[in-house]
Description:
- With 414 residues, chain A is of the alpha/beta class.
- The first copy, chain A, has 2 domains: 3-220 and 387-408, Aldehyde Dehydrogenase, Chain A, domain 1 (3-Layer(aba) Sandwich); 226-370, Aldehyde Dehydrogenase, Chain A, domain 2 (3-Layer(aba) Sandwich), CATH 3.40.309.
- In chain A, 44% of the residues lie in helices and 21% in strands.
- Chain A contains 15 helices and 16 strands.
- The first copy, chain A, has helices at 3-19, 24-38, 40-56, 61-67, 71-86, 125-136, 150-166, 182-189, 204-213, 236-248, 264-279, 289-295, 304-308, 324-334, 347-356, and strands at 94-99, 105-112, 115-120, 140-144, 174-176, 197-201, 226-230, 257-263, 284-287, 300-301, 315-321, 339-343, 361-366, 383-385, 393-395, 401-412.
- A 7-stranded parallel sheet of chain A has the order 10-9-11-8-7-12-13. Chain A has a 4-stranded parallel sheet with strand order 5-4-3-6, sandwiched between helices.
- In chain A, helix 2 (24-38) packs across helix 7 and helix 10 packs across helix 11 (264-279).
- The model of chain A has no long low-confidence stretch (mean pLDDT 95).
- At the A-B interface, strand 2, helix 10, helix 15, strand 13 and strand 16 of A face strand 2, helix 10, helix 15, strand 13 and strand 16 of B.
Amino acid sequence: xxxxxxxxxxxxxxxxxxxxxxxxxxxxxxxxxxxxxxxxxxxxxxxxxxxxxxxxxxxxxxxxxxxxxxxxxxxxxxxxxxxxxxxxxxxxxxxxxxxxxxxxxxxxxxxxxxxxxxxxxxxxxxxxxxxxxxxxxxxxxxxxxxxxxxxxxxxxxxxxxxxxxxxxxxxxxxxxxxxxxxxxxxxxxxxxxxxxxxxxxxxxxxxxxxxxxxxxxxxxxxxxxxxxxxxxxxxxxxxxxxxxxxxxxxxxxxxxxxxxxxxxxxxxxxxxxxxxxxxxxxxxxxxxxxxxxxxxxxxxxxxxxxxxxxxxxxxxxxxxxxxxxxxxxxxxxxxxxxxxxxxxxxxxxxxxxxxxxxxxxxxxxxxxxxxxxxxxxxxxxxxxxxxxxxxxxxxxxxxxxxxxxxxxxxxxxx
Amino acid sequence: xxxxxxxxxxxxxxxxxxxxxxxxxxxxxxxxxxxxxxxxxxxxxxxxxxxxxxxxxxxxxxxxxxxxxxxxxxxxxxxxxxxxxxxxxxxxxxxxxxxxxxxxxxxxxxxxxxxxxxxxxxxxxxxxxxxxxxxxxxxxxxxxxxxxxxxxxxxxxxxxxxxxxxxxxxxxxxxxxxxxxxxxxxxxxxxxxxxxxxxxxxxxxxxxxxxxxxxxxxxxxxxxxxxxxxxxxxxxxxxxxxxxxxxxxxxxxxxxxxxxxxxxxxxxxxxxxxxxxxxxxxxxxxxxxxxxxxxxxxxxxxxxxxxxxxxxxxxxxxxxxxxxxxxxxxxxxxxxxxxxxxxxxxxxxxxxxxxxxxxxxxxxxxxxxxxxxxxxxxxxxxxxxxxxxxxxxxxxxxxxxxxxxxxxxxxxxx
Lengths: 414, 414
């Protein structure tokens, strides 16, 4: 057995204990939060090494900022774990049930998934967030973080493991793969004897690699090529407001928009208003010829590739469309199926957009930035699924569970 | 674009139409049923060629029987399609909903998965069954059947496509891959730009190949290494009755049992009673040394491998266990997570078994043969999932759907 196979076997054993753990899981979570606070200094010291290494490796300022932990951020992580402890335990919920004519009583019960693998990049807070959610839903977790955060991750994982063990649950409920070479993530993707699901959290490259190479079931997360369509019946100020918010409030996240589509009947009026708002943040516009005609030379020409791109930056592609259908077709072709919005005051257009657009979240007259577990009231979020199987959209605790049929009889045969 | 990529693109276009099709789907299903009846002779002629080829290729009698269509079987297929038409349409169901403090109204709505690929083996009835279920749930389907049934499948698929087109829905709602070489199934497994899910239906070899090689999300179906555990508190006659039913009523199916575990405190009494029942069908027993001690020379020694095996035959592995825990551990190690049963009159044992055993269906005092969509009241079944993601256990129409969040606002920004 390889090191990672051994981790898989230990995780599977831990998962059997966790499946029946009940209230003990909350004790473990509170113990983790306490231990994270008490060991803050240790975590920050480990983080210092990562930051130092990151600087030497020439990481960008924004990547270093993601990597950086402070006393406040560690406190934030600990509070996050406590919030997970406060959520209702979903395990054991009866999802449906009936009694057959032959007397068999059937119930479908919510159970943990089992062993969850999570592959993530430079954010060390994911180590604690993801582990807490998995634990709360009764799952053992194997974490494989990026090499940039390895020292921080090791410190956090070790603190969590000890805290869990103190409360009597197996410390192997949470494990971290310390080998950050490509070989370890490849092996994790193939660990089908032990893993029930693998969740990649990170950029498009990581997610693509996992989806293509994994032999275990994967939940695809987080790539967001999102659109706002400004219908001919849109309230133009509302449209400008929503576009400004959806593009500029946090351009680096997956629920930010990348392209706007503007109906040709309103484009001449709407585009200058929209541009004026976006100028406040110096957003670069890449537009179709009609956009350039209306807005002038400030618009760079949009390439076919631009419409596929998740800029994650102060860049917005613009296209003038001649009909509602053209807008819906454009979205069907280029969207990643994350979040899509129509701005309109027309009832039928609103209904048709909601029905025809195929995405995890479809909006009328609201910013796509709301696609988030916290905003939707799910309590916490392990990621945003952009696939259709198992989970779609923000994933909370319920999405970290499976179900089983429980059948009680008194001798029935078929 | 390859032939199969072109099929994928056409399926995706058809899926967009089907997603909004409503009652038209039922018209298409009834049109299919009618066309199957009217073209029965054509189907049987095509089937004759498959049977002839099968005989020449030396197929076993049981495989030839699976392949064989008769007037009655075609009538059964047509009736099956009508039964699917009569089921409630799950699309558009509101799964949950709430209103946020900021006024956003959120609903989670059931939507089709999109494009479903199905890889299956020698049964031509699957062509119609699977296509009908996919269509009813608003999905386009790409079928890839086994080469043994290719002539029957082509006839059935062509009849269905024409019948669908007559009702105004796209004929590419249903497509059959006519190339039955390994290359075509490999390509289908990698068709991630077009397929939302791939469902293999067939033997363990096919399913393993799909799970290991697919780059699209897969729902694993149907491998059943199922157990009955006869507890020390079991009613012995009930145990013998359940074991006889679960082993011999249809040994070739996935919900039949392969191993029984008998508590040592009841083994001496129970095993002879169980054996007497199984002797009626000449079931071969492969047992542990204790089993042989009790039952004598008729018991062949069970190898480690036997406990992993899905015999799908009149063969049963037997193991005497010294405790409840040993039984549960054995199941955790060898089970495929399909259907597991305890026979006991002890309340606590029953509860613990239901809680601790991790399988799609867990029974107290009833035959595992009930694990079936029809028996569970799901109306129809596309297969039995043995994975934990998305669907677990018998899969009906709901399991062929996804969901999306629909959010209605009046200008909200974050």
